[in-house]
Design goal:
There is one protein chain. The chain is α/β, with parallel strands linked by helices. It folds into 4 domains: 184 residues, inorganic pyrophosphatase (n-terminal core) (Alpha-Beta Complex); 101 residues, CBS-domain, CATH 3.10.580.10; 124 residues, HprK N-terminal domain-like (Udp-n-acetylmuramoylalanyl-d-glutamate--2,6- Diaminopimelate Ligase, Chain: A, domain 1, 3-Layer(aba) Sandwich); 124 residues, Diaminopimelate Epimerase, Chain A, domain 1. Helix content is 37%, strand content 22%. The strands form 5 sheets. The protein has a 6-stranded parallel beta sheet with strand order 3-2-1-17-18-19. Strands 8-10-11-12-13-9 form a 6-stranded mixed beta sheet, sandwiched between helices. It has a 6-stranded mixed beta sheet with strand order 20-21-22-23-25-24. Strand 6 and strand 7 form a beta hairpin. Helix 13 runs antiparallel to helix 14. The longest helix has 20 residues. It is elongated.
């Protein structure tokens, strides 16, 4: 099972670029199966950065909860509906199976076949003499099952119902019995007894099987040829030959076609509910086209493998991909405050440092491993640092970020000043996105003192577009608050030129009169010098929430 490197929901450039770069480092060192993933669509600026770096967007995965297609046994042993009991039984015994899927010639799934089904087929019609004799197969399958040899072959290979007769009686009784069955469907088994062979040949039966390694005399073989009777020599005695011929029945009639079928995209939770009371042993897993991709047993659901994740640019389950709480989180690489809900069964590597960008931390891992990044990966990390530090102008910027940027610049084929200018010019969310999309472009949820809230942040050049869309952005904030059942939602619009922001709130609790920034109008504040959600706005909101909580107490 691969290991997925994930940024947070509604990922920004730093989250996506950190995931891509760290997955690349892991692939080149300890985990060649590492895959960069994201649980949200990259914004325009991120797309621009990846385009410049000539790197594809990471794999989009919105839910890592295991699906049945991920844990089923792929490429299972199967049978064809044209095979016979003996063939299928040998395959089951060879692989230690008690059940297997059955496919037709076009690989379409037909059903499941069990050992009990095979046993029933061998003894089919035990209480009905005619059904006990009926063998649906073809001549070649009979020859294969008894390891026989054709002495004469004239029958076609189209499967048909043959009626089995054993010539273990007097010639007189056999002659009287054989007329009770249609000759064109009769299959006669006898030993070295010309008195049985002759009436069978004169009757023009379909197949005559001679047991014990014996064969027809030249005279009788000539009669078989003239009458179109297929003659097979069996190396086994009559009893063994007869039993084997019964195991030459084609299995198509015994296939269970009405059992439970699972689709590869079904969640394990849904599958458990579906199969928990079933008496079936094996369940087919099909793709969207109805083709078999694997099989599943109840035992496979007892302790299925858990997804393996590395989280970058976040450490809170509320911000992680859906299903992270059911996965094994092996590592965290982040530069934000410690959040809640993250647990692990075993000790994990947890790197959390006060730098301006997670890509700074990833670059440090490259340097520590003595590995030089490819130009595209280097530019990818540069984009993450530029985005999160507003090109080293944010108060979150550290000397480590600046020094890392200098190191990465050696591998990039771009002038970073020009790249940064183009990066911020491209993809204005307010110019190109719906109001709801603006909020979701870079949104994180938090919880403090029992209050749940979200903070969205966008970077723009100037505030003109914001003033044009203020009303619809406020309505979108209200909708987000109600839909997610939050206490409030906030939008921080940052001007990368003036290094200031506007803060729009869905609602203001009574305690917020202590907010020490100009209130431009209801729900809207001017935050000069505030550009960081992590280091400036979040601590401010947390402090106000705590003050309000204390006043209530």
């Amino acid at each position: 099972m691969p290991i997925y490197v994930f940024g947070h929901k509604n990922p920004d450039t730093d989250a996506i670029c950190a995931a891509i770069a760290y997955a690349d480092l892991l692939q080149r060192t300890t985990r060649p199966d590492a895959i960069a993933a994201c649980c949200g669509t990259p914004n325009k600026r991120t797309e621009y950065a990846l385009q410049c770096a000539e790197i594809e967007s990471p794999k989009m995965i919105m839910d890592v909860r295991p699906e049945v297609g991920a844990i089923c046994r792929r490429n299972p042993i199967f049978a064809r509906d044209t095979e016979v009991v003996f063939e299928v039984y040998e395959r089951m015994e060879q692989h230690g199976l008690s059940a297997l899927p059955v496919l037709d010639a076009s690989d379409n799934f037909l059903g499941i076949l069990t050992l009990l089904d095979l046993l029933k087929l061998v003894f089919e019609g035990a209480s009905d003499q005619l059904e006990l004799r009926r063998i649906h197969t073809n001549v070649e399958k009979i020859r294969q099952v008894i390891s026989g040899e054709f002495q004469h072959h004239s029958a076609d290979e189209i499967p048909s119902d043959m009626l089995l007769m054993v010539g273990a009686m007097s010639a007189e009784r056999f002659t009287k019995s054989i007329v009770n069955y249609p000759a064109e469907n009769s299959l006669v088994v006898c030993g070295d007894r010309p008195t049985i062979q002759l009436p069978a040949l004169e009757r023009c039966v379909k197949v005559l099987v001679i047991t014990g390694g014996n064969e027809l005399s030249p005279e009788l073989l000539q009669l078989a040829t003239v009458n179109g009777v297929t003659v097979i020599k069996s190396p086994y005695d009559t009893a063994t030959t007869t039993l084997r011929i019964k195991s030459a029945r084609m299995v198509s009639k015994a296939v269970q076609t009405d059992g439970i079928r699972l689709l590869q995209g079904e969640s394990l939770e849904d599958v458990r509910k579906k199969v928990e009371r079933s008496r079936e042993r094996l369940f087919p897993v099909l793709n969207d086209n109805g083709k078999l991709i694997g099989v599943l047993s109840k035992a496979d659901l007892i302790s299925p493998p858990r997804p393996q994740l590395i989280l970058v640019d976040h450490n809170e389950l509320a911000q992680a991909v859906t299903g992270a709480d059911e996965a094994d989180i092996l590592e965290v690489l982040d530069h934000h405050r410690l959040g809640g809900g993250l647990r692990s069964a075993q000790p994990i590597r947890f790197v959390n440092e006060p730098v301006g960008s997670t890509c700074t931390l990833v670059a440090r891992h490259f340097r520590a491993a003595g590995i030089l990044p490819e130009p595209g990966i280097a530019l990818c990390m540069v984009a993450g640092i530029i985005s999160d530090t507003l090109y080293l102008r944010s108060p979150t910027t550290t000397d480590i970020d600046r020094e890392t940027m200098i190191w990465l610049a050696k591998f990039c084929h771009y002038d970073l000043e020009d790249f940064a200018n183009d990066f911020f010019q491209i993809g204005s969310a307010l110019r190109t996105c719906k109001a709801s999309e603006v909020l979701n472009e870079d949104c994180k949820e938090f919880e403090e003192q029992g209050q749940r809230f979200s903070i969205s942040q966008i970077e723009e050049i100037g505030f003109e577009l914001f003033w044009n869309r203020k009303e619809e952005l406020f309505e979108a904030l209200m909708s987000m608050t109600n839909e997610r059942r939050l206490d409030f939602s906030a939008l921080l619009v940052t001007d990368v030129v003036s290094n200031g922001s506007l803060l729009l709130l869905s609602q203001e609790p009574d305690s917020w009169e202590a907010l020490n920034y100009p209130r431009l109008e209801k729900h809207l504040y001017q935050l000069d010098g505030v550009v960081s959600r992590k280091k400036q706005l979040l601590p401010l909101l947390v402090r106000l929430i705590k003050q309000g909580h204390s006043s209530v107490l």
